[in-house]
């Protein structure tokens, strides 16, 4: 099975959300037709934006929307799972828009595969990432308090996915002080650069993400 990779570089959240939905709708329309194409992988960096999932709680935004506008950040209620999170420069946001039936994965196995790919990605930098029961995403294993390096929130309809993950590479972590990240008041956020103490190449991290996703999802990811 093949997945087409599109590097969107920098794109505002609303434009990218509309683009995701167009690809998502296309996959749904062609569901059941014979094809070796399982979908798309979009990687992008967004300007500062906070998003609240459909089951999220608005009280996890600790400042006013007016304050967010003052610091140049947007805010959206969106249709993924999960609570509130932040996207911004220095963060690789991945949107796998996939037909899981073509790949042969359940939704639970898909989420495990995404988390596993990110755990293996950060391991290239000597970082031990892991999972926490009852909390999606990738966390620094054994950290006290727990620190999240990658957030995860997806939507699926008829086993077609959208939304995805956000891996902090060199993200300004001060933005996370304005929220309870993913709804947790007692846990923090971190980044690859924060953990290892020096800069890394965004392009290099992207390539690791692509390689690890290809292995975990058992698909060939190609750039058109």
UniProtKB/TrEMBL annotation:
| Compartment(s) where it occurs, according to its Swiss-Prot or TrEMBL record | Cytoplasm
Keyword annotations for this protein, in alphabetical order, are: Acyltransferase, Cytoplasm, Transferase
- Look up the EC number in the record and give it: 2.3.1.181
Q: Where do the annotations place substrate binding?
A: 80-87, 151-153, 164-166
- Cellular component terms (Gene Ontology): cytoplasm
| Reaction(s) the record says it catalyses | octanoyl-[ACP] + L-lysyl-[protein] = N(6)-octanoyl-L-lysyl-[protein] + holo-[ACP] + H(+)
Active site annotation, chain numbering:
182
Q: Name one GO biological process term.
A: protein lipoylation
Q: Which residues form the BPL/LPL catalytic domain?
A: 35-221
What is noted besides the main data?
In the reaction, the free carboxyl group of octanoic acid is attached via an amide linkage to the epsilon-amino group of a specific lysine residue of lipoyl domains of lipoate-dependent enzymes.
HAMAP family found in the cross-reference section: LipB
Similarity annotation: Belongs to the LipB family.
Q: PANTHER family recorded for this chain? A: OCTANOYLTRANSFERASE
Q: What is this protein called?
A: Octanoyltransferase
- Name the source organism: Candidatus Alistipes avicola
- Gene for this chain: lipB
């Amino acid at each position: 099975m093949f997945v087409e990779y599109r590097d969107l570089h920098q794109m505002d959240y609303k434009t990218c959300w509309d683009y995701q939905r167009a690809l998502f709708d296309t996959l749904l329309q062609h569901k059941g037709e014979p094809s070796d194409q399982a979908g798309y992988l979009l990687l992008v960096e967004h300007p500062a934006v906070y998003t609240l999932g459909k089951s999220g709680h608005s009280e996890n935004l600790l400042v006013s929307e007016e304050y967010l506008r003052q610091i140049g950040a947007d805010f959206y209620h969106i249709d993924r799972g999960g609570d509130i999170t932040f996207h911004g420069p220095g963060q690789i946001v991945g949107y796998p828009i996939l037909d899981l039936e073509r790949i042969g994965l359940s939704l639970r196995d898909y989420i495990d595969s995404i988390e596993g790919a990110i755990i293996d990605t950060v391991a290239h930098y000597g970082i031990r990432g892991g999972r926490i029961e009852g909390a999606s995403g990738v966390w620094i294993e054994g950290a006290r308090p727990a620190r999240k390096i990658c957030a995860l929130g997806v939507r699926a309809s008829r086993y077609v996915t959208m939304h995805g993950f956000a891996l902090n590479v060199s993200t300004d972590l001060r933005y996370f002080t304005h929220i309870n990240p993913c709804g947790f008041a007692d846990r923090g956020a971190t980044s690859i650069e924060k953990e290892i103490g020096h800069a890394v190449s965004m392009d290099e991290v992207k390539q690791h993400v692509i390689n690890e996703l290809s292995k975990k999802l058992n698909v060939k990811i190609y750039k058109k």
